[in-house]
C-alpha cells in the first residue's frame, strides 16, 4: 500500500512544482540595480539642444520611464502615465530609447506628454547602463538617487495603485533620509 | 516524368535552403580585431552571455536588437577600451544580473541550480540499486528472500 503511493506522491510533487512554475513570469528578471545609485547619463533633451543629467534631480524622488514610439505596449501604459502626471505631483523623466526625435515628438503630440523632461538615447547606450532589455521599463528613485524599484513591461492600473503610489508616498515622507 | 518533378523539387528546396542560410549569415555583423586573443575572447563572451530578449539564446545566436547592441558593447570594451574578459562579464552582471550568464557562479542563490543535477543523479542511482536488489531477490535461489518475493508476486 505504502509503496504504491510513492509514484503518486512523486507525481503530485512534480505537478505542484510545475504549477508554481507556470505562475512565474520568466521575463521578470530580478534587477541587480535595485538599492544601487542610479546610473548617470548626460543626454540631449528632446525639445531643446541642452543636455540633461539625473544628477539635477537630487533631493526629490523621481521616476524614469523608458519608452519608444515603436514599442506597442508603451502605448498601453502611456495613458496611465499621463493620468499619473496629472493627479500626482511627481517628476517623471522619459528616456526615449532607440527612436528618432520626429517620431518621438509625433507620438507625444498624439498621446500627451507626462514627462517633465524627455531625453534621447538613440543608440541605446544609456539603456545598457540601466540594464534595459524590454521596453517599457520604469524605475523609481529616492531622494538620494538610489534605485528603489523597477517595473519591467508596461505599467498597469494595478501596478500603479498597489506598488507605485504607496512607494512614492513612502519616499516623499522620508525627508530625514537626506544626508 | 515523375523523376523530373522530383529533381526539380529537390533543386528548389536546396536553393531555398541556401538562400535562408545566406540571410542567417548576413545578419551577424563582423568586427575587426587587433589580436587573436581579442577575437577569441569576443567569441567566448558572446557564446557565454545570454540575450535577455530571447532568453534561450546567447548573444551569438540572437538577432534581437539588444543582442546586436550588446555584441557591439563587448567588442568596444575588448578592442577599443582594451578591457579584459572578466571586466566585460562584470559590466554585464552589474546591469543584468547573474541571469545574463549561461555559466552562473556558485552562490547560495544558485546552489540548487548547480547541485540539482547531482541530487537527481544520486536519486537515480538509489532507485536503480533498489530495483536491481529487488529483481535479484525474486530469483528463487535465495531462501531468505523467499517470503519477500512471494509477497512481491501477489
How would you describe the overall organization of this protein?
The complex is a heterodimer of chains A (179) and B (154). Chain A is α/β, with parallel strands linked by helices and 179 residues long. Chain A has a single domain (32-177), classed as Glutaredoxin. Chain A has helices spanning 2-23, 72-87, 101-111, 125-129, 157-173, and strands at 43-44, 51-52, 62-67, 91-97, 117-121, 137-141, 147-152. In chain A, strands 5-4-3-6-7 form a 5-stranded mixed sheet. Chain B is mainly α and 154 residues long. Chain B folds into 3 domains: 1-30; 31-105, Cytochrome C biogenesis protein (Helicase, Ruva Protein, domain 3), CATH 1.10.8; 106-154. Chain B is 66% helix and 0% strand. Chain B contains 6 helices and no strands. Chain B has helices spanning 2-26, 36-48, 65-80, 85-96, 111-138, 146-153. The model of chain B is unreliable at 22-26 (pLDDT under 50). At the A-B interface, helix 4 of A face helix 3 and helix 4 of B.
Brief sketch in words of this structure:
Chain A is of the alpha/beta class. Chain A has 5 helices and 7 strands.
The share of residues in helices of chain A is 25-40%
Give the overall average pLDDT of chain B.
79
CATH topology of the largest domain in chain B: Helicase, Ruva Protein, domain 3
How much of the sequence lies in strands of chain B comes to under 5%
Mass-distribution shape of chain B = flat
Distance between the termini of chain A: 67 Å
Which homologous superfamily in CATH is the superfamily of the largest domain in chain B?
Cytochrome C biogenesis protein
Quantity of strands of chain A, as a count: 7
Chain oligomer state: heterodimer
Overall number of structural domains of chain A: 1
Enumerate the strands of the largest sheet of chain A in spatial order, edge to edge or round the barrel. Answer: 5-4-3-6-7
Structural class by helix and strand composition of chain A: alpha/beta
Which CATH architecture of the largest domain in chain B? Orthogonal Bundle
Unreliable runs of chain A:
none
Amino acid at each position: 500500500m505504502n509503496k504504491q503511493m510513492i509514484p503518486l506522491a512523486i507525481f503530485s510533487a512534480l505537478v505542484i512544482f510545475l504549477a508554481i512554475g507556470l505562475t512565474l513570469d520568466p521575463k521578470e528578471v530580478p534587477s541587480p540595480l535595485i538599492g544601487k545609485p542610479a546610473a548617470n547619463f548626460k543626454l540631449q533633451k528632446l525639445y531643446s539642444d541642452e543636455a540633461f543629467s539625473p544628477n539635477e534631480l537630487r533631493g526629490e524622488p523621481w521616476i524614469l520611464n523608458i519608452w519608444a514610439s515603436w514599442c506597442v505596449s508603451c502605448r498601453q501604459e502611456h495613458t496611465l502615465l499621463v493620468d499619473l502626471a496629472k493627479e500626482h505631483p511627481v517628476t517623471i523623466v522619459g528616456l526615449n530609447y532607440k527612436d528618432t526625435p520626429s517620431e518621438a515628438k509625433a507620438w507625444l503630440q498624439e498621446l500627451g506628454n507626462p514627462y517633465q523632461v524627455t531625453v534621447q538615447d538613440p543608440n541605446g547606450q544609456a539603456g545598457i547602463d540601466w540594464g534595459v532589455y524590454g521596453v517599457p521599463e520604469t524605475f523609481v528613485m529616492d531622494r538620494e538617487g538610489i534605485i528603489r524599484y523597477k517595473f519591467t513591461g508596461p505599467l498597469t492600473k494595478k501596478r500603479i495603485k498597489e506598488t507605485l503610489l504607496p512607494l512614492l508616498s513612502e519616499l516623499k515622507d522620508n525627508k530625514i533620509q537626506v544626508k | 516524368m515523375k523523376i523530373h518533378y522530383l529533381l526539380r523539387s529537390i533543386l528548389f528546396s536546396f536553393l531555398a535552403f541556401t538562400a535562408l542560410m545566406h540571410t542567417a549569415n548576413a545578419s551577424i555583423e563582423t568586427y575587426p580585431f587587433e589580436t587573436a586573443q581579442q577575437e577569441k575572447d569576443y567569441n567566448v563572451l558572446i557564446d557565454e552571455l545570454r540575450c535577455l530578449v530571447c532568453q534561450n539564446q546567447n548573444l551569438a545566436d540572437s538577432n534581437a536588437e539588444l543582442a546586436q547592441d550588446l555584441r557591439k558593447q563587448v567588442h568596444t570594451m575588448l578592442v577599443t577600451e582594451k578591457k579584459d574578459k572578466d571586466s566585460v562579464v562584470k559590466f554585464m552582471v552589474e546591469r543584468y544580473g547573474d541571469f545574463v550568464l549561461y555559466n552562473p557562479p556558485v552562490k547560495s542563490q544558485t546552489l540548487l541550480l548547480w547541485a540539482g543535477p547531482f541530487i537527481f543523479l544520486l536519486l537515480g542511482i538509489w532507485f536503480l540499486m533498489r530495483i536491481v536488489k529487488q529483481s535479484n531477490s525474486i530469483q528463487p535461489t535465495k531462501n531468505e528472500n523467499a517470503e519477500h518475493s512471494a509477497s512481491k508476486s501477489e
